[in-house]
Specification:
Length: 215
């Protein structure tokens, strides 16, 4: 029997620290790994640490979570057993996300999750709905649509599965220097404007493009 791994991650970003202070919940990010070595992860997140609005589908590495002065990060890891057919579906799905240049981060759904608990936009997703979709492809029944799941919801959903919790040490990746490149205010403003403009267009004009097979 093969396994995939759902990884709840304590974020050491400024936003993550603020969220933790207000919610008291430890984990602000979630990702999927296909290997028990936990060296590569898949999720929707920022493409560079100092560029929060340049975000979309990502292959992430340990030093993306334990960045700069951090040498380890805290995580909770769930192991989900999958058969060959389920693993093939998950692998194909992840490859499809990575090959689609229109995929982007659903900032609108993320900031409104506490109020309306998630909604769909055309080819726009976040770490929570991506992970919930992978869990669904792994054969775990969902009690509500995948895009309605928060990180605490996913933790409760998987509570009975084997899991481990603790610190994971940093391993340097070849793309780390690019990941931690600094940004500046004009770049940040341009990236923010692009995200808002694109997501607004998809919200207003692309609603009919959403279907069960859109992703």
């Amino acid at each position: 029997m093969k396994h995939i791994y759902v990884v709840l991650i304590e974020s050491y970003t400024g936003l993550g620290k603020i969220l933790k202070k207000f919610t008291g919940y430890r984990y602000e990010h979630i990702a999927v790994s296909l290997d028990k070595s936990l060296t590569e992860f898949y999720s929707y997140s920022r493409r560079q640490h100092h560029h929060p609005f340049n975000a979309g589908f990502m292959k992430e590495f340990r030093d993306y979570y334990a960045f700069e002065e951090y040498q380890k990060f805290y995580a909770k890891v769930f192991a989900i057993p999958v058969n060959d057919e389920e693993m093939a579906r998950i692998t194909e799905f992840i490859e499809r996300c990575g090959q689609d240049n229109e995929q982007m981060f659903n900032l609108f759904a993320m900031v409104t999750t506490p109020i309306i608990h998630g909604f769909r936009l055309y080819k726009a997703h976040n770490c929570m709905d991506f992970t919930a979709k992978v869990i669904e492809l792994a054969g775990v029944p969902l009690a509500k649509p995948y895009y309605k799941y928060s990180i605490p919801d996913i933790e409760k959903l998987l509570a009975l599965l084997p899991h481990k919790e603790g610190y994971i040490r940093r391993i340097d990746s070849k793309d780390y220097d690019r990941y931690v490149e600094k940004s500046d205010l004009p770049t940040g403003i341009r990236e923010f404007a692009h995200v808002i403009r694109t997501l607004t267009h998809r919200l207003v004009f692309d609603r009919k493009k959403i279907s069960g097979s859109e992703w």
